Amino acid sequence: MSGTLFIVTAPSGAGKTTLVHGLLQRNADLFLSVSHTTRAPREGEENGREYHFVDVDRFHTLRMAGEFIEWARVHGNYYGTSRSWLAAQLEQGRDTVLEIDWQGARQMREAFPDAVSIFVLPPSLAELEARLRGRGTDSEEVISRRLLAARGEMRHVQEFAYVIINAHLPAALDDLATIVQAARLRCASQRMRYPHYFAFLEQD
Q1: Would you say residue 64 lies in a domain?
Q2: Any idea what DSSP says for residue 40?
Q3: CA angle centred on 72, ends 34 and 162, rounded to 5°
Q4: Using CB atoms within 10 A of its CB, is residue 184 exposed (0-12), middle (13-18) or buried (19+)?
Q5: H-assigned helices in the chain
Q6: What are the beta bridge partners of residue 97?
Q7: Mean pLDDT of 14-31
Q8: Total number of domains in the chain
Q9: Cα(132)–Cα(12) distance, rounded to whole angstroms?
Q10: Tens digits of per-residue pLDDT, 97-147?
Q11: In the predicted model, what is the mean pLDDT of residues 5-33?
Q12: What are the backbone angles phi and psi of residue 132, rounded to the nearest 5°?
């Protein structure tokens, strides 16, 4: 049995982390892919839960050892997805959600062509700026850099199979849950999960 990989991408501040956490609360049988990063933990984050927080030297050691199936530098920090961990999750039939930037998403789609890719858009750049400022965790310089980067990131939206506009969080969460359910009902997924229901196909 093989699990489904769900790739969720968005510019910083668009709400993807909040949406993914809400999705995981609704679905006990969904698992979060925990990436490695060199950025500092934000308030409330725990090592091994949101990310594996490592320093730059450790990150590059893992990268050189081939541990990352993809990696990228985003806003001055490095992020990478563990090849061995993700492969084990999917081989065990565990549907896994990966939060990632558009560059990493492109690499992941090449490695996992059956992955379900989802892009989360903010309703406007003005709202995106308000959300970034509302977090109260970033300096003016960082906010300006994130807003500038967001314009370029959103130009890649057409590369994704699904797009959610996060104007109203409950509605956006419903949309995300619907995408997951629809993917699980694909014929190929159903045949792998419930082969006994398709036994008649093997009969003469």
Answers
A1: no
A2: P
A3: 70
A4: middle
A5: 16-26, 56-64, 83-91, 102-111, 125-135, 140-154, 169-184, 187-193
A6: 6, 32
A7: 93
A8: 1
A9: 8
A10: 999 989 889 989 998 899 999 999 999 988 888 888 887 777 888 888 888
A11: 93
A12: -65, -40
The identity of residue 44, as a single letter, is G
Tally of CB atoms within 10 A around 1:
12
Residue in 17, 11, 53 with CA at minimum distance from that of residue 32: 17
Q: Which domain holds residue 194?
A: 5-33+95-202
- Identity of the amino acid at 81: T
Two structure tokens written together for 115: 């992955």
- Does residue 192 have a pLDDT over 90? no
**DSSP code of residue 138:** S
Query: Does the residue 191 lie in any domain?
Result: yes
d(CA 113, CA 110): 6
The amino acid that residue 48 corresponds to is: G
Torsions phi, psi of 174, nearest 5?
-60, -40
Which helix or strand (DSSP H or E) is residue 165 part of? strand 162-165
What the block records as the tokens of 95 is 């549907």
32 CB burial (10 A radius; 0-12, 13-18, 19+): middle
Whether 108 is in a domain gets the answer: yes
Which residue's entry shows tokens 């090449």? 110
Q: Could you count the other beta carbons within 10 Å of the beta carbon of residue 155?
A: 10
**Which residue, chain included where needed, has tokens 């956006």?**
172
CATH code: domain of residue 159: 3.40.50.300
Residue 38 lies in a domain: no
